[in-house]
Design a protein that fits this description.
The complex is a heterodimer of chains A (about 525) and B (about 325). In chain A, helix 10 runs antiparallel to helix 12, helix 15 (about 430-435) runs antiparallel to helix 16 and helix 16 (about 455-465) packs antiparallel against helix 17 (about 470-490). The two termini of chain A are about 40 Å apart. With about 525 residues, chain A is of the alpha+beta class. The model of chain A is unreliable at about 1-25 (pLDDT under 50). Chain A has 17 helices and 20 strands. Helices cover about 30% and strands about 25% of the residues of chain A. Chain B is mostly helical and about 325 residues long. Chain B has two domains: about 1-70, no CATH class; about 90-315, MetI-like (MetI-like fold). Chain B has a two-stranded antiparallel sheet with strand order 1-2. Chain B is globular, with a radius of gyration of 24 Å. Chain B starts with a helix and ends with a helix. The relative contact order of chain B is 0.14. Classes of the chains: A alpha+beta (about 525), B mainly alpha (about 325). At the A-B interface, helix 7, helix 8 and helix 14 of A face helix 2, helix 3, helix 7 and helix 12 of B.
């Protein structure tokens, strides 16, 4: 009798233990470094907000961890005429409130994009090329554009589809208070506390792959050291934006696993192309501090010299602790628009000095290098290092790092001669070309982030052709040519492409991605 | 008394007004919020639209007048980032900060007063010397470092306390409070202690100095000569008289703890007002910055008022009516 009781007890203990194991495996806690400011997927075009939106909502075209386009709420899309795209929608998809997903929801979403009040950065850029949205049947929709528009599927990877019935009269506040945050995505929101945490529950009616965890605690811990400490203390299971200063220790730590992936964010130097050859650039003087009377940065030899003087390997190894790769262009290998045969930029101080002498500056000149100190990983330390490298070839460099809030305004007004900045590309070469390398032009919407005002008609011409080219291989060739010219002309000085780093506790696996989004559905228990 | 109160309130109004002008001009001088908030993808047309949507296309003085007009109707503007009324955002975060500040003040009195009293009564005891040496550490160690050390020791190494965040909350008056749940209290312990450390040292030193000074007073000598028990001398005659400076300082410290616990809140990811204001400054979210500072000004004025009123209760010689003249 006693023995039997003991056995029952043991059996009960096993059951309880198994249950606990399962309960533990059903909840995961994630800490992200950048605060999510809204659950409205169309209020603010901001990466942390977009990551949360991709958890709750779906897009017509989703992206995988390599940022490749994959079918989302659309199963296929094709060009009917050069100015008409047709998207076939996925059947039997339901929103988290039970409503069926149809073409009406897509049309409503696109109409909502430009009409979100007070948006500090709206999604209207993605609906502006569309002249008409035509619903053929509940599962077929056509987009008409004024001119051939090959980038439409790429644009659709930025548009999260909302439920028409729920969102029709909803304000951003309704989304933030969870009522209106209803999508078709893998998780639904249970509760949201602005700037602090979001609680998700798995949506079991989701059409796609079922995520591993039933419940997700999505917390925002902006302090780097505190985020790492929370992981080491076991309070959270996954953190993003792992500080580079912790990488060496974490790589050795048995309790932690790192997930790394080279991303799409290039850190580069912009140079002043706005001032003509016979004008003074604001922060360039001769060696005695007098105005130079010309802008040396307009001479391609000078730009090459400045680029060759930089020891990218040293920056990557010593400042970035290996969490970056040296770059010679915007996009890493394998991404649409990468120039495959572009040679790596050599580190060659002697060659740089020769080029300077050829350009008429055998004694060099003085320059000030500006940059932010709170925006990109180790930004201030990188410009300090470059300052020394430039000084070594005779370009005596003063370095000034400022908070992003002051820096970016002045950079936007083209007040600097040389400055460090970053760019997170979409996985398509036209994106950096159009925004950074193309001539600044308000009417075309080109070069909006071209803060050095680089301008090259050849680059512009090839880009223009590519933007009207509906044949993908041809389009890629045009983009590659345009990018090759811009890079050989040293329109900007590429430094490195950052590696995205996540860290999990042992027992968890995170699928590191090319994009910087931290998505709950990418977290799984580790395979044993 | 009434005259005094009215005069104080009018003063407050002017300070608030001056504050709003300074913040307006200051944020304008730092930079352009649109440059910071706008997606890098946005083209020039989108940038212009955003400038207009946020009302930044008007000249600064017009922006200020619009703000003033709305403020008079109780609307302090909408946050650029959250698209919610700035006042609502701040009030949402206020309970978290308040309970942390009061927790810290409670700790500082609970620990600081007895230690200071002891150190004052037995200035030469080794324990007193240890207390005074310890209080120097409390003064001089930087808050963020102590915070991180607390996390490393109690959360990472020992695993006794949760490292960051606010934990479970209970509801009281329709607001969320951590001190109502055990988990919440566990989350509160380290940030409250971290905030309190400086104040504990302050209270120790003030109390000790006060006790040392008062013990030499004639009335204390007289009380002793009369044969009163040492406990009565200490807790009635000495204690009452050292409270005035302690109340003043703790009151002012409470104000600055509520207003500027930025470091502790960000190290412990405590979702209070301090974290809100630093995040808002980073993105130049002007409506929130202005509203926050205006609330803080009002709060300081109120606290000072309460401190003055407490004085008059503790020390009948202080007369409020005559003080202003």
């Amino acid at each position: 009798m006693k023995k039997q009781f003991g056995r029952q007890l043991a059996a009960a203990a096993v059951v309880v233990a198994a249950g606990m194991g399962q309960a533990a495996a059903q909840t995961a806690t994630i800490a992200v470094g950048a605060p999510v400011t809204s659950l409205d997927p169309h209020y603010h075009q901001l990466s942390p907000n977009n990551a949360v939106a991709d958890t709750i909502f779906d897009r017509l075209v989703n992206t995988d961890v390599q940022s490749r386009a994959i079918p989302g709420l659309a199963t296929e899309w094709r060009v009917i005429e050069p100015t008409v795209w047709e998207f076939r929608l996925r059947p039997n998809v339901r929103f988290q409130n039970g409503n069926a997903f149809t073409a009406d929801d897509v049309a409503f979403t696109l109409a909502r994009l430009p009409n979100v009040p007070n948006s500090p950065s709206s999604f209207a850029v993605y609906s502006r090329p569309l002249t008409r949205v035509e619903i053929i049947d509940p599962l077929t929709i056509r987009f008409h554009t004024a001119a051939p528009y090959p980038l439409l599927p790429l644009d659709m990877t930025n548009v999260r589809i909302v439920d028409k019935e729920t969102a029709e009269n909803a304000t951003t506040a309704d989304f933030n208070e969870v009522r209106a945050a209803v999508g078709t995505g893998p998780y639904r929101v249970v509760s949201h506390r602005n700037g602090d945490r979001i609680e998700f529950e798995r949506f079991d009616g989701h059409w796609g792959e079922r995520p591993a965890f039933q419940r997700i605690n999505y917390r925002m811990i902006t302090n780097d050291a505190a985020r790492t400490a929370a992981l080491l203390a076991g309070d959270v299971d996954l953190i993003d934006q792992v500080p580079t200063s912790d990488l060496t220790n974490l790589r050795r730590d048995q309790r932690v696993r790192l997930a790394e992936q080279v991303g799409l964010r290039l850190i580069f130097l912009g140079l002043d192309h706005q001032r003509a050859e016979n004008e003074n650039s604001p922060f360039v003087t001769d060696n005695d501090g007098r105005p130079l009377g010309r802008n040396p940065l307009r001479d391609v030899r000078v730009r090459q010299a400045l680029s060759m003087a930089i020891d990218r390997r040293a920056i990557v190894d010593r400042i970035m602790e290996g969490a970056a790769v040296p770059a010679n262009q915007f996009l890493p290998q394998g991404v649409f628009g990468n120039v495959p045969d572009l040679p790596a930029i050599p580190f060659d101080p002697d060659g740089a000095r020769r080029l300077l002498a050829e350009a008429g500056y055998p004694q060099g000149f003085r320059i000030q290098l500006n940059g932010p100190n709170d925006r990109y990983i180790n930004d201030a330390r990188i410009i300090q290092a470059i300052g020394q490298m430039w000084t070594r070839i005779g370009v005596r460099t003063a370095v000034e790092a400022q908070p992003w809030t002051t820096f970016i305004g002045r950079a936007g007004r083209v007040e600097y001669s040389a400055f460090l900045i970053g760019w997170g590309s979409n996985p398509d070469g036209s994106h950096p070309l159009r925004n950074i390398m193309a001539t600044f032009n308000r009417d075309r919407g080109w070069g909006a982030s071209n803060r050095g005002r680089y301008s090259n008609p050849q680059v512009d011409g090839l880009l223009e052709q590519s933007l009207a080219e509906m044949d993908e291989p041809k389009r890629e060739r045009l983009i590659i040519e345009s990018m090759r010219i811009a890079m050989q002309d040293v329109g900007v000085v590429p430094l490195h492409i950052q590696t995205n780093v996540w860290a999990t506790r042992r027992g968890f696996d995170y699928a590191a991605s090319v994009d910087e989004s931290t998505l709950p559905q990418r977290l799984r228990p580790a395979a044993r | 008394m009434t005259v005094y109160l009215v005069r104080r309130l009018i003063q407050a109004l002017f300070v608030v007004l001056a504050m709003s002008v300074i913040v307006f001009v200051g944020v304008f001088a730092i930079g352009d919020p649109v440059e910071i908030l706008i997606s890098p993808d946005a083209d020039q047309i989108e940038r212009e639209r955003a400038v207009q949507a946020l009302g930044l296309d008007l000249p600064l003085w017009q922006q200020y007048l619009v703000f003033l007009g709305n403020a008079l109707q109780g609307d302090l503007g909408r946050s650029f980032v959250f698209n919610e009324p700035a006042l609502k955002l701040i009030l949402q975060r206020m309970p978290a900060t308040l309970e942390l500040a009061f927790g810290a003040m409670f700790l500082s009195i609970l620990i600081g007063l007895p230690l200071g009293l002891y150190a004052g009564l037995r200035p030469n005891a080794p324990a007193s010397k240890a207390i005074m040496a310890g209080s120097i550490l409390g003064f001089s160690l930087p808050t963020f470092w102590v915070g991180l050390m607390l996390i490393m020791v109690f959360a990472v190494q020992l695993g006794w306390l949760p490292s960051t965040g606010r934990g479970d909350t209970g509801t009281l008056f329709g607001l969320h409070w951590s001190f109502l749940t055990v988990d919440g209290l566990a989350h509160m312990a380290m940030p409250a202690l971290n905030l309190a450390l400086f104040k504990i040292s302050l209270v120790i030193r003030l109390t000790r100095a006060g006790v040392r000074e008062t013990m030499l007073m004639d009335y204390v000598k007289f009380a002793r000569a009369k044969g009163l028990s040492p406990a009565r001398v200490t807790f009635v005659h000495v204690f009452k008289n050292i409270l005035i400076p302690v109340v003043t300082v703790v009151g002012l410290e409470l104000g600055s703890t509520i207003a500027f616990s930025v470091v502790t809140e960000s190290v412990f990811a405590w979702p209070g007002m301090g974290k809100l204001i630093i995040d808002s400054i980073n993105v130049l979210d002007r409506p929130v910055i202005v509203a926050y500072l205006m609330i803080i000004v009002l709060m300081f004025i109120t606290i000072n008022l309460i401190v003055d009123l407490t004085y008059s209760m503790l020390d009948p010689r202080v007369r409020l009516e005559t003080k202003g003249t």
